[in-house]
């Protein structure tokens, strides 16, 4: 057996052992960034298995350190410290310890150990998601004059860490990846949105020449430890869950084109978009959209003065000011019926609405019916899995079944309408939450329950907040719209800041 074959055999055995001792787990786990993940690594518990920890250190050394020249090595606190210690002992390369905060007494050092300016230091890490922990370590080591350009990690979760590190001049070498999604068969994915997701991910994970070896999911599947369904679910999750170092998500655009920039690095007004609900008074919208840069939500069937001219005015304004039209139709019928409701009749919704809302209650046929009207998938929808009305019948089982429907139609479903972040399985889906008002908690006997901007963003996890009567019934809609935008954006900044 060749040296490389022996190495790969050892790595395969290690991956299976990590699964056996539950360092590597599959299920549904809440992550630090606030979302659920179908896979979780807890490398801290490996310290209870010294033989396995030694194997990890030996493989990292053999893989990416022994043939390189480094003056020091530094483990990212805290999980990687024992592994770094073992590598240092084996290699005789001096070790540095980077504190999470400087001592307030004695030398007040942030980096412990002996080193000289311009020494070459390699960083050791266990698991990489966004790469933020490594970048914090890089920052502190570089502040001491050390030369840091490489990191060696056990597992790359493939959620943007490799790309984020490369942007700061750090090359990442990983023993293994979860699934190497970049190698996923694009031809097997249906619909333009999923192909775009996987293609984008492929570019991110092959653009910087970093090394990686085996795929964890493939090894465990071959060993009979996980099913193909688990493999597919994790791949889908990874493709939709790229994360920046600050904890925010790099969200792939929904199927309705590429102009739904609800979370981008552009101007503040694009960060949190409020859909203004019009009820026939289109002039309110026309007088305010330039200042507030809205995405417009319509209830076209209650516009009293409807005519084809109304649609043309909306389309002209949308093109001129680069916003989307969301028709809140809430389709909820058999496939054939919604196909006609979407494309025929007085309103001909499919001819102008970029997005529509859909109730999942009829089952998958409601989505297949709508999709049959727009074969090129240049339209999309929001699935209504939770409502803000009092006494609604959205049970946990209904929500779960609705999300299973959503998962099968990610080429058409751009997001979900819901009231809680737990309903959204993948960050690539936009969470649209209605019922936002600065004042008033309900509208009497009509069922609407309102929430404040802080509550809807910080507690309920909204990416897009729906503000309707709070603006349209205001004495000064333009000024009130600006106030909503400011409060929602402040809340969003606070939420993202808490994830860093």
From TrEMBL:
Assigned EC number: 2.4.2.10, 4.1.1.23
ATP-binding in keyword set: no
InterPro entries for the chain: Aldolase_TIM, OMPdecase, OMPdeCOase_dom, OPRT, Or_phspho_trans_dom, PRTase-like, PRTase_dom, RibuloseP-bd_barrel
Pfam families per record: OMPdecase, Pribosyltran
Alphabetical UniProt keywords: Decarboxylase, Glycosyltransferase, Lyase, Multifunctional enzyme, Pyrimidine biosynthesis, Transferase
Pathway info: Pyrimidine metabolism; UMP biosynthesis via de novo pathway; UMP from orotate: step 1/2; Pyrimidine metabolism; UMP biosynthesis via de novo pathway; UMP from orotate: step 2/2
Orotidine 5'-phosphate decarboxylase domain: residues covered: 275-484
Keyword Lyase in annotation: yes
Family the entry assigns: In the C-terminal section; belongs to the OMP decarboxylase family.
Database matches in HAMAP family: PyrE
Annotated protein name in UniProt: Uridine 5'-monophosphate synthase
Source organism per UniProt: Periplaneta americana
Taxonomic lineage from the root: Eukaryota, Metazoa, Ecdysozoa, Arthropoda, Hexapoda
């Amino acid at each position: 057996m060749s040296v490389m074959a022996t190495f790969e055999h050892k790595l395969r055995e290690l991956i299976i052992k990590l699964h056996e001792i539950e360092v590597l787990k599959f299920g549904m786990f809440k992550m630090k960034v606030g979302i659920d993940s179908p896979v979780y690594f807890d490398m801290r518990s490996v310290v209870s298995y010294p033989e396995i920890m030694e194997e990890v250190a030996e493989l990292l050394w053999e893989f990416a350190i022994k043939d390189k020249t480094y003056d020091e090595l530094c483990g990212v606190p805290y999980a990687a410290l024992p592994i770094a210690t073992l590598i240092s002992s084996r290699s005789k390369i001096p070790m540095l310890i980077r504190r999470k905060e400087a001592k307030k007494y004695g030398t007040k050092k942030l980096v412990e150990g002996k080193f000289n300016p311009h020494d070459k230091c390699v960083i050791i890490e266990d698991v990489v998601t966004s790469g933020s922990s490594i970048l914090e370590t890089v920052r502190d080591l570089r502040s001491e004059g050390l030369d840091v350009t490489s990191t060696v990690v056990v597992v790359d979760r493939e959620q943007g860490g490799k790309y984020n590190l490369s942007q700061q001049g750090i090359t990442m070498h990983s023993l293994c990846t979860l699934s190497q999604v970049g190698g996923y068969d694009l031809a097997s994915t249906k619909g333009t949105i999923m192909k775009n997701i996987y293609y984008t991910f492929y570019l991110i994970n092959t653009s910087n020449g970093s090394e990686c070896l085996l795929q964890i999911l493939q090894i465990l599947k071959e060993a009979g430890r996980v099913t193909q369904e688990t493999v597919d679910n994790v791949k889908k999750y990874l493709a939709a869950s790229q994360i920046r170092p600050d904890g925010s998500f790099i969200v792939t655009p929904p199927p309705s084109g590429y102009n739904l920039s609800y979370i981008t690095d552009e101007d503040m007004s694009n960060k949190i978009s409020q859909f203004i609900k019009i009820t026939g008074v289109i002039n309110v919208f026309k007088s305010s959209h330039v200042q507030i840069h809205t995405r417009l939500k319509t209830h076209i069937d209650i516009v009293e003065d409807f005519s084809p001219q109304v649609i043309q005015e909306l389309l002209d304004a949308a093109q001129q000011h680069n916003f989307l039209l969301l028709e809140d139709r809430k389709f909820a019928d058999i496939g054939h019926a919604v196909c006609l409701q979407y494309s025929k009749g007085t309103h001909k919704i499919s001819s102008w609405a970029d997005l529509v809302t859909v109730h999942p209650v009829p089952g998958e046929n409601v989505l297949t019916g709508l999709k049959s009207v727009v074969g090129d998938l240049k339209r999309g929808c929001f699935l209504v899995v939770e409502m803000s009305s009092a006494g609604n019948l959205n049970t946990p089982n209904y929500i779960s079944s609705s999300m299973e429907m959503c998962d099968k139609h990610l080429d058409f479903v751009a997001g979900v309408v819901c009231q809680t972040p737990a309903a959204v399985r993948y960050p690539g889906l936009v969470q649209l939450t209605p019922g936002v008002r600065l004042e008033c908690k309900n509208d009497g006997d009509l069922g609407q329950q309102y929430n404040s901007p802080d509550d809807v963003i910080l507690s309920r996890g909204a990416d897009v907040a729906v503000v309707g009567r709070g603006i349209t019934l205001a004495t000064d809609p333009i000024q009130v719209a600006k106030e909503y935008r400011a409060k929602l954006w402040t809340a969003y900044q606070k939420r993202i800041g808490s994830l860093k």
